[in-house]
Structure formats: C-alpha cells, structure tokens
Amino acid sequence: MKSGTVVRKYALLLALMALLALAVGTSSAASMLDFDIWMRKIDKKIVDVQKRIAQKDDEAAIQSAEEIEDLYLKMENYFIQIKHPEEAVQMSREGKEAAAIISASVRNQDYDKGVLAAVSIARACSACHDNYRPFK
C-alpha cells in the first residue's frame, strides 16, 4: 500500500510540474490573437503617422513611428518563435526598418522621405494580406 501511495504522489507531482511548465510557457509566448492586435494597431498607426507628418506634428509622428517599430519587432520575434517561414520574419524586419526611417526622417524634417516610408508600410500590409489572407 505504501508504494502505491508513493507512486500516486509522484505521479501527481509530475502532473503538477507539467501543468506549471505549460502555464509558464504559454504565458510568455505571444499568441495569434496578439499578432492580430499588433496588425490592427499598425494599420491605425500608419494612418495616424501620415496625418501627423502632413500636419508637421513631429513629436506625435515620431511617437507613432516608434510604436510601429516596436510592433514590428514583436511580430518579428513572434514569427521566429513559432518557426514561421523566413519571409514573414523578413517582412517584419522591413516594416521595422521603414518605421525607423519615418522617425529619422521626421527628426531631420525630411517629410517626403518619411511619407514614402509610411506608404511603403501601408503597401506592404496590403500585399501581405492579399497573399496570406485566410479568406479571399
């Protein structure tokens, strides 16, 4: 009887450790929902950054561009984490780089370059959605 109790306690301990490991692993990992939220934020922010550049509201444009850059970094890390094809990682890097160009251009008051970088992000979003949208 004692060995049966020990085995059950050991099995329960292992099960609890497995659940704890699963909970810790999933809490630090981004989900598809997170990814969807990031894409929607980028969509809104890219429109905002173009408006702010047109208004020559440098501080707000830079802030929005930096937020876009951070969102693309999250997407890049997400794609790396889930071992998604390199194309997704590369597209995220390109978006991040374009957002950095927006910030630098606005800081240098090169608004045309900033707008071109913003438009390139908007076009990349459309192209990606055209190719990878689940429903056509």
Automatic annotation (TrEMBL):
InterPro entries assigned: Cyt_c/b562
Record's keyword terms, sorted: Signal
Signal in keyword set: yes
Signal peptide bounds: 1-29
GO BP terms: electron transport chain
Gene Ontology terms for molecular function: electron transfer activity; heme binding; iron ion binding
Protein name, as recorded: Cytochrome c
